[in-house]
Amino acid sequence: MRRSHASTRHPLQADHPKTVNLREAHLVHPVNTWLAGLFSPSNRARTIEALVSAQGNDDNDIRRQLLRRRINEAETKLQRHRRALETGVDPAVLVDAMNAAQAEKTTAQSELTRIPHDIQPTALEFDTLIESFGDMAAVLDAGTPQDRAALYEALDLELRYEPFEQAAAVS
From CA 82, how far away is CA 91, in angstroms rounded? Predict the structure, then answer.
């Protein structure tokens, strides 16, 4: 018979309860109040700074860089082929290579134009948006359980319960 990893206990955890049941209702408001505190006037500037800096590079930026590199490489090949033609190389020899380089350049340019440009809010726009919510704790508390779950997951929120202190640490 296999033992569940979750129920296997380390000797140092012998006094740890086997199970811990927490009512969501006891945690939601304190967690939302803590989150809302991040947007309070005393923390807002620091939170907005973190939001702005977290925008950084995205996958689209990396794709753009790779496509620009492909375009530059294709352009380099085309220039090299043109110089070869200027030195007297038979054009028939270079037709396939030039067509391939031009096709690569055109394809990469087409892909580059189809990548959406992410609009990244400025600090002022974040501040205006946050201000428009008013009481952030009330807004968070008013959300549906599904909305809260999605928000907590997006924030990578973790809750660690300490049964002997009967306290939860949120990070």
Answer: 9
Question: Residue 69 in 3-state DSSP?
Answer: helix
Tokens 């202190």, located at residue: 165
> Mind listing the pLDDT tens digit for each residue in 24-42?
888 888 889 999 999 999 9
Residue type, 111: E
For residue range 112-162, what is the model confidence (pLDDT) as tens digits?
Answer: 999 887 778 889 999 999 999 999 989 988 889 899 889 889 888 888 888
Strand (E) or helix (H) holding 60? helix 59-86
CB 120 within 8 A of CB 55: yes
CA angle (124, 125, 129) in 5-degree steps: 115
**Letter string b/e over residues 45-71, b meaning 16 or more CB atoms within 10 A of that residue's CB:** eebbeebeeeeeeeeeeeebeebeebb
SS3 category, 166:
coil
Average predicted confidence (pLDDT) for the chain: 85
